[in-house]
UniProtKB/TrEMBL annotation:
One Pfam family per UniProt: Polysacc_deac_1
Main location: secreted
Record keywords: Signal
Native source organism of the sequence: Caballeronia concitans
Top-level taxonomy: Bacteria, Pseudomonadati, Pseudomonadota, Betaproteobacteria, Burkholderiales
InterPro entries: Glyco_hydro/deAcase_b/a-brl (IPR011330), NODB_dom (IPR002509), Polysacch_Deacetylase (IPR051398)
Locations listed in the record: Secreted
GO molecular function: hydrolase activity, acting on carbon-nitrogen (but not peptide) bonds
UniProt name for this protein: Polysaccharide deacetylase
Amino acid sequence: MNKATLKSALAQCIVRLGVDRVTRALLWRDRTAVLVYHDPKPAVLDQHLAFLKTICDVVPLGNVTKPGNGRPRAAVTIDDGNIGNAALLPVFVKHHVRPTIFLCSRFVAASTMHWWLYPGATPQEVERLKRLPNSERLSELARYGYSQHHADQPSGLTADQIETMKPYVDFQVHTRFHPILTRCDDNECRAEIVDSKKELEELLSTPCEHFAYPNGNYTRREIQILRAAGYKTARTCNLGWNDCHTDPYQLKCMVIEDDATAVCFAAQLTGIPVFLRYVRHARNLSGRSPQF
């Protein structure tokens, strides 16, 4: 049985046994689930949002840690600012949902390419590169012919697309070049967190107060820099729901696969599929995403 079949079978079990409904009643309750997407297709997101609005209230990210009203809540976030996100605008408008899209300041409104899209990239090789010290990762990318400063195949949202989406989308910060912050030295880490905020605020002409850790990797160092830079929240990839007691610099989330079917989406809202993946890779039961 292949991986896709196993995923589908698990999702079917979760839904048919009513685990998703029990999870909403016992764990989600009046807390907030922060959903994490990357580059979903409009038809998929349309289906997800239609279902989501039948089971919870959809709120802006800034309301995540505010007291609830007795109903489950969800905030929709999308990482990286891929150029395909522009096609999602009609879906947001249709469902009256204001998502947060976390932008890499040097991969949007520019001709550069997100580094994991370099020619010949494979999932296994990208995962290996993530684990390297940042200087070594950049050196290896250079051997593949990739430079994060020069490219002729832009993969991020354009300035015009961002301007069109601004009335309907909350754009926030996801570093400059999307390195794994815990693999950066102090100066690199500070520049990625502080300079990206300045660059995006200049592009957007609005304050940026929220941050998403690339790959969900962070330590106390990153939190200290974020606080000093004036951010109000930071989203991790740790599984769980949020309430007024959640550390705003360690917001939990539900990771959603961009191509999830309706049944898989309902299952992923419980956190169980990703929890099992984290257990397999991180060998712990905390729900914390694997850290490099």
